Structure formats: C-alpha cells, structure tokens
Amino acid sequence: MDSVTRRRFLLASGVVGAGALAAGGSTIALSSLFETPEGRVLGGRPLVVVTLYGGNDGLNTVIPYTDKAYHAARPDLAYTETLTLGSGLGLNPKMLGFKKLWDAGKLAIVRGAGYPKPNRSHFSSMDIWQTGSPDSPVDTGWLGRWLDATKGGPLDAISFEPVLPPLLAGSTVAGGSVPLKGFTSTSLVTGLAGPGGPSLRDRVSASYTDLLAVRKLAVSVDTDEPGEDAEHEQGPLAAQLDMTARCIEAGAQARVYSVSLGGFDTHAVEKAASERLLGEVDAAVSAFAARVPGAVVLVYSEFGRRVRGNGSDGTDHGTAGPAFVIGGNGGFFGQQPSLTDLDRGDLKATTDFRDIYGSLLSSVLNTDPGKVLNGWQGRVPGLF
C-alpha cells in the first residue's frame, strides 16, 4: 500500500473523524516529547509497533521449505534455500538480522496470526487489526483505548508516520503525531536539547548533526521515492526507528511508538520486491533491537498472501500470516497453518491476533486486556 493509498485508508476508516486525521491528529512538536518533570520514573518497557502495509507474504517470510505442498503451489516463487529455524521452517534469506535474534533466543514468531471470518480487503483488514475488533466495526484503535483506560495523553503514544494511524486514536484522546518530513538537523537538535536541557539530552542531541541530515529524513518518508544519493540515506523505516531510539535514549515519556513501511502488495514480480522490503525491515528492526534492548517490538501486516502463486510471479490477497515479537521469549508460538487444509485456497488462522495484543497489554503495558479489547482475555502462552 503506497503512501497515498495509506492516507485514503486512514481517512476512510473514520477513526476520530476525517477532520482530525486530515490535520494529523494530535500533531505535536518534537520538543514537546520531553516536556516531563525531571526525575520522572517511567513505568514498564516501551512498546514499538511496526506496521507493514500491503499484506506481507508470510509464506515467503517464514518459509515452510520442506513442505511439498509449498513447492507445488509456488513453482516459480518457492525458496529452496532459507535461513534454517527448525521444524521445517526457515527465514527469508534477506533476514540475517532476524536470524541472529532467533539464534540468541530473542525473536518470537507467532504463526498463523489472523482472525475469524477473514477479510481480504486492505482497508477492512487493516482496520480490523488496528482497532482490535474483528467482530464489529469500532471507531477507536486498540492502543487509543489503552490511552483511554490509563488516562494517558498524546505524549504517551507517538507516531512518526505521515498521518496518525487509527490504532492510536481513542474516544477521549489520541496519540501524538510527529511526522518526520520537513525536519532539519537543526530542528532535531533544538527539539532534543532545548534551553537548559539535561546533560543526557544534550549528548543525544549533539549526535543528530552528523547522523540525521535533512536528506536522510526526507527520503521516501512521505513519497516512498528515493532521493538524490539515496544509497547514502536512511530508508523510511530506519529513519522512524532511529527517531524512536533517540527519544527512548533521551528519556521521552512515551510508552508506545508507531512506525510503518508500505509496499507489500506484491501481485507481480514478488521475489525481488519482497526481498528488498524484507531486507529493509530486517536491517532497521534488528539495528533498533540491538540499540534499545529493553524495548518490545511487534511486527505485523494486515494479512498474508494466497498459498498459490497467481501466474504473474506474484501472489494475491490472503489471510493469516506470521507476526514477530522481539523482547519477550524467543521461539515458535502458535500452530503452523496447514498448506493442504485451506479456506478457499487460503491459510486458516491458528492464532487470534487479539491474543498477541492481550500479551502485550498485560505483560508490557501493565493493563487489563479486557478493558481495551472488549472483554477479550486471551494470551499467547509463554510469549512473556
């Protein structure tokens, strides 16, 4: 899903009203992230939610390379060589950083994540994932309702995306939106340091001059188009996660950060596009995890792809797929979906995504999931 389509989705979702989203929700200045009393004790670990827009192909991400049905369904798309994980599964060859996390016991792969009666529309499925309500439409996001339940404010949940995502919109308050496009290295330094800022903030802000020039932050954050000297610039996800890391290091009060990457709607010539995108996700997320080992990271997409290739060297909209969690217990969670027992050619979900949210709410955000997920109390056993 490109940035224009993503914007239309956000507006069409109706969360907190089109007017609020069109205005960027609770747009705040970078300097506002640090307007907290000195010595404030933060409760719990930060949660970083990484949204992959477009429907990432889970079968070519966590690959069942020993399954004959996989190769039969995808003769031109199937991988024979993977980064072996065990249980007949392997990571995409471009995900070397995730493999290191796996080997260190720091990467959880939640298999078959989805919901009952799956919807194959980008807009509807992403709305379901972001609102956390597969049974009936609601106009608040699951983390927005967390803000409501904990009486939080815009500074407690921050998005570095072009438009405030619905998942941060509550009924009484929305998360803060800090779009990266247009920031200069000077404004970043000023925002983090401020007059009389503490020494930690001063040290963090000083590094921005060298690391976050205008070109690095402008490249593709809003347009998804590479700029001049793109090979020397950060991609959009790396830029967002770099900002997230620096805010955490400098003591921003936010408990939740939302970042995203689009382009996963791979109907044609999938392998090249998917490998480029997964390589970008791998490099950005694994670097962040190494830099901020205390954070918890969730990586998800609105749905997976169909089991069978579509004849255009691509795949069409599917249903369930893997989700990744970093910062809890490593290993496989949930049952691997069958490639022969299908739902109209699609995988059957084996893990309700609300169980993932329930685990994050209870173990990371210290909140009763039932207050946020309309009474849902499911968990992924052993994830934390």
Helix-strand topology string: HHEEEHEEHEHHEEHHHHHEHEEEEHH
Architecture per CATH nomenclature, i.e. the level-2 architecture = 3-Layer(aba) Sandwich
Q: Major sheet: size, sense and barrel closure?
A: 10 strands, mixed
* Helix content bin: 25-40%
Please count the beta strands (DSSP E, at least 2 residues each): 13
Rg over alpha carbons: 20 Å
Shape estimate: globular
Give the N-terminus to C-terminus distance in angstroms.
Answer: 32 Å
Tally of domains: 1
Which structural category fits the helices and strands?
Answer: alpha/beta
Any idea of the CATH class? Alpha Beta
> Stretches where pLDDT falls below 50 for ≥5 residues?
1-24, 37-42, 182-232
Q: Which fold does the CATH topology refer to?
A: Alkaline Phosphatase, subunit A
Mean pLDDT: 83
Instruction: Tell me the strand percentage band.
Output: 5-15%
Distinct helical segment count: 14
Describe this structure in words.
With 384 residues, this protein is α/β, with parallel strands linked by helices. It has a single domain, classed as Alkaline Phosphatase, subunit A. Helix content is 33%, strand content 14%. The strands form 2 sheets. Strands 1, 2, 6, 7, 8, 9, 10, 11, 12 and 13 form a 10-stranded mixed sheet that branches. A 3-stranded antiparallel sheet has the order 3-5-4, with helices on one face. Strand 4 and strand 5 form a beta hairpin. Helix 4 crosses helix 12. The chain is globular. The chain starts with a helix and ends in a 12-residue tail after the last helix. The N terminus is likely disordered.
